[in-house]
Design a protein that fits this description.
Layout: H1 2-14, E1 25-31, H2 38-48, E2 52-58, H3 61-70, E3 79-84, H4 85-93, E4 97-98, E5 122-134, H5 135-140, E6 161-164, H6 170-183, H7 185-198, E7 199-203, H8 208-215, E8 220-224, H9 225-233, E9 238-241, E10 249-257, H10 263-273, H11 276-282, H12 314-319, H13 321-332
Parallel strand pairs: 1-2, 1-3, 6-7, 6-8
Antiparallel strand pairs: 3-10, 4-10, 5-8, 5-9, 5-10
Helix pairs in contact: 6-7
Length: 340
């Protein structure tokens, strides 16, 4: 290594090589991607952009959203890669996003891209609600298999269900938002009041309820399809249930933070996020992608999965997020797990 450095310094001194050739741009990227995804995404991006190094700041959706908002007047992030579109809409309402049309954005499905021109954010993939049901533990407790959201209200499930806290987790918020949109606000809150009776705990991660179901800690975990399919493929004794009323969902998306000092590097990140190589990374985890024709069928996810997604008014979900979370906390915070 010392010999390589000496050669590089010698070349630089002789004028054959600029010292700047060895300087990398460090791009601070905030994300709510799953922890086991960020390594592969970083490697794929840096392979194409060897002059840029990603420094991740990773947390769950609610925490990353709150962190970005708290830094509004002194942004610390250059870009966001992997955050709920509803969260990015909130940042956009605060004037925090840099408009930019990534190269190849026209190849993405229009419904997965911000409608502003140029767009403020660009979709990556869809993740949606799924019930992880431990068949072994359920048999021990004589619990029937639920087929719908309504089934979860049955008294037999009291204390047997865990789900994500919507203020911490984007998965938790897409559940709450979907119930309110599908059922109407009055009936939606009434549903959650009854579900709360059966709830054992609200945890601060979208994937944790499925992990808890997989290990038998609780027989039922409301989570999302990617984590459930992965755990089932690994041999966990779980069934994945897609409630017949419809699945709450959100988009993971990418955006540039306005005021970044590394705008050109951030644009390269946005370009990559919308590219085929990036979509091939997303395809390893998700069944519905922003770029048509890339996703492959997962044996644990229904062929008609996209048709099971509920109607979702992203603008409504973003606009009303604070009020919904405040009301949710007033009603149900008593069963929230302690934060680590």
């Amino acid at each position: 290594m010392k010999k390589q450095m000496a050669v590089a310094v010698g070349l630089a001194v002789s004028g054959l090589l600029s010292p700047l050739a060895y300087a990398k741009t460090t791009l601070t990227v905030y994300t709510a991607l799953e922890a086991d995804q960020v390594k592969d995404y970083k490697e794929a991006f840096e392979k194409v952009n060897p002059d840029i190094e990603i420094r991740w700041v990773r947390e769950s959706t609610g925490i990353i959203t709150a962190k970005l908002l708290s830094e509004k007047n002194r942004p610390q992030a250059d870009a966001v890669w992997g955050l709920a579109a509803t969260s990015l809409m909130i940042l956009d309402q605060q004037g925090m996003l840099q408009a930019y049309a990534p190269k190849g954005v026209e190849k993405l499905s229009p419904q997965f891209v911000d409608k502003a021109r140029p767009p403020k954010w660009t979709g990556m993939d869809v993740w949606a609600a799924t019930i992880c049901f431990n068949t072994v533990e359920a048999a021990k407790k004589n619990l029937p298999r639920p087929e719908s959201w309504a089934d979860l209200l049955k008294p037999v499930y009291k204390g047997q269900i865990v789900m994500p806290h919507p203020a911490s987790s984007g998965t938790g918020y897409l559940d709450v938002s979907a119930w309110l949109q599908m059922m109407g606000e009055k009936q939606g809150w009434d549903y959650m009041d009854k579900l709360h009776v059966n709830m054992a705990q609200y945890v601060h991660s979208g994937s944790k309820p499925c992990k808890m179901a997989a290990t038998g800690e609780f027989p039922i975990g409301i989570s999302f399809e990617y984590r459930g399919a992965e755990l089932k493929a690994q041999g966990a004794p779980i069934d994945l249930i897609y409630p017949k009323e419809g699945l709450g969902w959100d988009l993971e998306a990418t955006a540039i933070i306005k005021g970044t000092r590394n705008l050109e590097a951030a644009k390269k990140l946005a370009d990559f996020s919308a590219s085929l190589p990036a979509m091939q990374q997303y395809e390893k985890n998700y069944a519905v992608l922003a770029m048509p024709g890339v996703a492959k069928q997962n044996p644990y996810i229904p062929v008609d999965y996209a048709k099971r997604l509920s109607k979702n008014n992203f603008s409504w979900a973003a606009k009303n997020r604070d009020a919904i979370l405040q009301e949710w906390s007033r009603r149900y915070e008593s069963k929230a797990a302690a934060k680590n």
